[in-house]
Structure formats: structure tokens, C-alpha cells
What we know:
Layout: H1 16-24, H2 31-46, H3 50-55, E1 61-62, E2 67-70, E3 79-82, H4 85-100, H5 120-133, H6 142-155, H7 160-167, H8 172-182, H9 184-192
Antiparallel strand pairs: 1-2, 2-3
Amino acid sequence: MPRNNKRKFPVEILTDREVRQLMDSCSKRGPTGTRNRALIAFLYRTGLRISEALDLLPRDVSHNRQIVLVRNGKGNKSRQVGIDSGALAVVQQWVTERDKLGIGPDATLFCTLAGGRLKNAYIRELLPRLARKAQIERRVHAHAFRHTFASQLLEEGVDIGRISRLLGHESLVTTERYLDHISPQRTLDAVRERMWTV
């Protein structure tokens, strides 16, 4: 039987403060920092997979309706995800910079300054660098924003079916495993809180 040699890391849940520190660590000079801040805010507040976020076109984000249309989710499935006004305001700063650069509507939303698609490898290098600059000791990677998104919704009492749809999971079983992995303490607490008398 073939062995999976992929190294498993613990799930990382970021705090609101840590996300702000990451955003503050982005360059304050030029459009690159504006774009990177927008991408971090976007991932944090939508829970999209990094590939889904990097595939978005500007028209996929409705600023008026506060909806993101994911056209090419996992398994080529589409879905809609909400986004709050605070995150949209940060994204809008990048859209304004993007327009000044003359980048057309057919380039991906979070693109290079020349209008090319950002590579996943760039994000894999960027986030740990920002974390070091922000003096965040935990491992920071793109999927941590997805874990954080799901964990926060769970803590806010959002129904698991809704979380599953937002994450783009095909099955509630996948979401349950995902959430148990993220918040095992919550599962233990749920059992401890049950009442039974003999």
C-alpha cells in the first residue's frame, strides 16, 4: 500500500489581531501592498480556497449585493459566498489601484501589477514572510484563513449546513470532519454538557 509522505501540520486558527498584524505588515508603498492587504482581508472574511480567490474576475464580486460568485470551485462547482462591508472596503482600495494601473476587466481580480494571474507559490512565500515581520510565531498559510473562517462561524452559532455550503463542501460529513479537526474542544464540550440522571 503506498504511503502518503505529505507532512501533516496542526490546524492553525488566526485571531482577528493576528490578521490585522499581517495586513499591517504589507508594504505601505505602492499598489503591491494594497493588493496583498486586500487578498488577506478577502481570504479571512470569505473562507475561499486560495485557488478560488486567485481565479476570481472583478465581475465576480458584487459590491452592492456583497456577494462573491465562485465560478470554478472544487469539482468545477459554482457557489455564492457573502462578504462583509469591511472586507469589501479593503478590496475596493485595491480595485481603485488596479484601475489606475490600467488593468482590464478580463484579468483576475488579485493579479500581478502587469495583469497576470498571481501564482499560489507567491502566496506560499508571502504569508510566512509577513508573519515573521509581524512577529507571529504560529505557521501562517492560505488555508489558515479558511480554517479561521469556519471556526468563527461555528463559534457564532451558524448552522453546519450553511457552513458546508459556504466552504463548498459536497457533503456535511466532510464539513463535520473539518470542524471537528478545527475545534475538537467544542465536540468534547458538547458531550460534557449533556445531562442524564439515573
